[in-house]
Amino acid sequence: HSFNTFDPKIRINSEFTNTVAVKVTYFTGSDSASYSDDVNPTYIYLKCVPIHTHNWSAAASGDTLTVECTGMGCDLATRTNLYQIVPEGEQIPYDGKAHPATVTAPSTTLSGISVGSVTYEKDGKSVSAPIDAGEYMASSVIEVGDSPYTVSTNFTITPAEITDFEWGTSTATYDGTDKTPVVTVKTPAAFAGTKTTVAVTGGTGTPTNGKAVDAGSYYVEVTGIEDGSENFKLPDAGARKNLFTITPLDLAGYAFDVVCTPTDATYTGSENPPRSVSVKATKGSKSFNLSAADYSLAWLPNDPKEVSTYKAVLTFEGNFSGSYTTGN
User: Fold this and answer.
1) What pLDDT digit, counting tens, does each position of 219-250 carry?
2) CA nearest 315: which of 267, 248, 265?
3) What pTM value is reported for the model?
4) CB proximity list for 105: less than 8 A, separation 6 or greater
């Protein structure tokens, strides 16, 4: 070969060099050679040391890809090499964070092999990351030369187990609005404050459209988590239920507008009370129009039968407590 047109890699005394200034003076074909810089022979003889090119054979099975070099003269310490996709665990408790799988590779980087990113499926649908509770399959495509091989593994993110709740207030006072307590998770501490969904059932009170409005006792039962019920496991029914009470509103200090219809009547010899009585209680910006279910009615000095002026005596009940006598 002419060094002017070809730049060989020469191995001399176990050393590689690309320097063409090296001039071999004599070579007998043995493993050694003598050389100098001032001799320029007509012919040189090179001992050829072939550069090894890996010839990969690959087979994928489940979560593992086995890659082996079948070429002669391979200098890899281990001809058989494994790539494996590995999850963080087979059963991972939900914690609101991503739990990615990884692909482990041989300690020696193998040329011509590239590992693709890990992708995920949950319930047969592609997801960007394994966060929510459920069954997952993680996969990666590994390119060996021009041939793709897929490794995959399955794992589960299990729901976080809730053991206790903060039940909110145990009592409230009637004001005509929903008093259903806000119930949140207490333990595990990682999810403390997470809001729940609840159902209201009656004790002595009767729910209004599923809400606790009127005075009485109620049971509030946790039915799920407000955001992401699939990620949580609720405790047994007994630990999900709590009793709370709405107490009647004491009307002491309220001003009353009591209107009797009619306002007067003619003596007939029989009891002749007003056909209807309307009652409105007001205190500051609060006012309530009371229905007949909110009070019992009596008259002073007695039942309205004789010719006289009568006072209405209201004793509040149901959603209200206290009493009021007109004309006082």
Assistant:
1) 999 999 988 778 999 999 889 999 999 999 99
2) 248
3) 0.67
4) 83, 115
